[in-house]
Amino acid sequence: MKVYNYARIIYYRSPLLVQILAIAFSLIIIFGTLLHFIEPDTFPTLFDGVWWALVSVSTVGYGDYVPTSVVGRIVAMLLILLGTGFITAYFASISGIAATNQQLFLKGETAYKGNEQIIIVGWNERTKGTIDELLTKTPPVKIVLIDASLKENPYASKGVHFIKGDATRDDVIQKANIQAASMVLITADQSKDEVAADMQTVLTILAVKGLKENVYCIAEILTSHQLANAKRAGADQIVETNLLSSFVMINNVLSHGTSPSLLNLLKEVKDSKVCLQEAPTALIGATFLDVTHEMLQNESSLILGIKRGASTYVNPPTSFKIEEHDLLIAIIH
Fold it and tell me: Residues 257-311: pLDDT tens digits?
């Protein structure tokens, strides 16, 4: 009795798909056993009866075993009426579950289960360009896109996981599996004015850092007076989009035609890697001119400047001395 109650509890707590499959297999075993005892000459072993039942309900019908008695054929009719219905329901359930899961995936309602992913917050042209570029990398980069405005996954066929929702909410960030993320990129909400967009970004930084303090967080900030708030919230790196745009426009005003050159320069270094690297011990005390020559000749690295603590020196004087703990701003080919 206890075994029966335990089995019943397991059955009713199982998914519908498992329940249907359990009923179908039970019918196959029961009817196969009946045929074995009703017609032992036709079905010499229990396995022969179960085999016939399975072949019958699956509508394959090999014809190697066929009941010959009236009672045997009545049992076969009952099996076909009952068993085939459950088998059909089973496959229909599989199709339904697959279709439902696909719709949930497209609509951004499924949680991400992977690890080492880059979480990108917000959908705009900058996000699109970033994702397009990341998808060309080898090995493939795992990407999770979070946005509240999109109706469905714009990259469903390219392996990008989409989560629909407000990234300032803990439950949305947790659906992106923030604990396993390697990096978070937060872009400014283009549907809001600049101040409101920056406030949204700061709130998102707080939500992300509150759930995983050590995750590397890059944030796009539009207004200069929100830079301090973004840093206090925990942003590891801040991208000042408006500052970059202003730089390009000012250069075009003062020197006509520089915009195409700047864009071509960015395109040229797109396939390279701009990074910070420690100055080799042998070059401590050397001049910037010597360092650039040495790194270009031996490391194939183009040195653009020096980062010393919180200060950055781009294209410093050739006599600029390299000190211990200086970082080289380099383009690595």
Answer: 666 766 666 665 655 577 888 888 888 999 999 999 888 888 778 888 999 988 8
Identity at 48, one-letter amino acid code = D
Task: Pick one of 3.40.50.720, 1.10.150.130, 3.40.50.2300, 3.90.79.10 as the CATH number of 118-244.
Answer: 3.40.50.720
Give me the residue spans of the domains in the chain. 2-106, 118-244, 272-332
* Model confidence, pTM: 0.65
Cβ atoms of 122 and 188 closer than 8 Å: yes
